[in-house]
Specification:
single chain, alpha/beta, Aspartate Aminotransferase, domain 2, Aspartate Aminotransferase, domain 1, 2 domains, seven-stranded mixed beta sheet, three-stranded antiparallel beta sheet, 13 helices, 13 strands, about 35% helix, about 15% strand, globular, binds pyridoxal-5'-phosphate
Amino acid sequence: MTAASEVSFSVPFLDLGGVNNGVREEFDLAWKTVLDHGHFVGGPEVERFEGEFAAYCEAKACIGVANGTDALELILSGLGIGRGDEVIVPTNTFIATAEAVCATGARPRFVDVCPDTLLIDPAAVQAAINSSTAAIMAVHLYGQMVDPEPISAIAAAHGLALIEDAAQAHGARHRGTSAGGVGIAAGFSFYPGKNLGALGDGGAVVTSDLALADRIRSMANHGRSVADRYLHDLPGRNSRLDTLQAALLSAKLPRLTAGNARRAAAMAAYREMLPQGCTPVSVQPGAEPVYHLAVVQVDDRSDVCAALTAAGIGWGVHYPIPCHRQPALASLHEPASVGHECPIAHEFPVAEHAAGRILSLPMSPTLTIEQVARVCDVLGGAV
Ligand SMILES: Cc1ncc(COP(=O)(O)O)c(C=O)c1O
């Protein structure tokens, strides 16, 4: 859900033009270089970016793939998760987290989120584990990492794979651990609006398990063997990061840390200026979020949104319909699912309540304190 696109915004929801304009010269050079050498798929820029991004995430390996959804699906498939397995997924996430699970033949088992952070609730995870559970998806939503300690302890105690959905968390940290360094592997998205965004679709798997990395690299490239390109020894598909996108991402990566810091400064300004009745999502002790989104909770969201739109201020809602209420996933909650010894939770009160109240305010590395003040001023008149 986003504000009407025909309005011309005084404060845009995301200033993508401003972000990309700062890298124009590097983009021009990247395009010229790739056009000159002509290796549009699998060119040298892919390996270069993979090395840079693995280092950025403090992981041993990175595999560039076509998008973030594929990254998650490839991690699951690379771990051998599929039909008959269940994967625990927070219901408050973008549907892609659940889609990736369904695409492997496994089934998402939705759980509720914590009321203060709206991130996956470890107690709900613990309660959802049953004999079919194979993995837990820790979604670092809005740019804040799931606290690694409790979720890792649960995964370890039950022998489950812990997978990070880090699509919204490039560069996020928690007590010295970086997004991509908690689970067996993490999936990142380079969708244009992400903190590190390509000029098209893109994604990556980051892992320090080198055997898993080799398997995923092969599966993303038609299951091709390293020794013989005409031998396909794994079930594969085509999910590769284009050379051009890799080159553009390498041009943007050196600016990611500074961009994240500017997002954090804008969020700090929001916290100072937000009116009563407009409550930002909490930050856990030890967390260093990268504020992919600036999410607050309000009582009368439609009135607040109308006031923002009237003032030319962009907004969004992430997400107004929790995954368990999405028609495409509804059958997962039908009685056919009996047979599991752990009862399926049909109600997710925290996520349901939050879905009607959450509101994403403008957030960009280019957002100025004056723009934050303007947004807060309009909010003050509306809440
Ligand atoms: C939490 C989350 N997971 C997964 C994805 C999927 O990424 P992509 O759009 O690159 O497939 C997104 C992207 O929007 C996301 O926000």
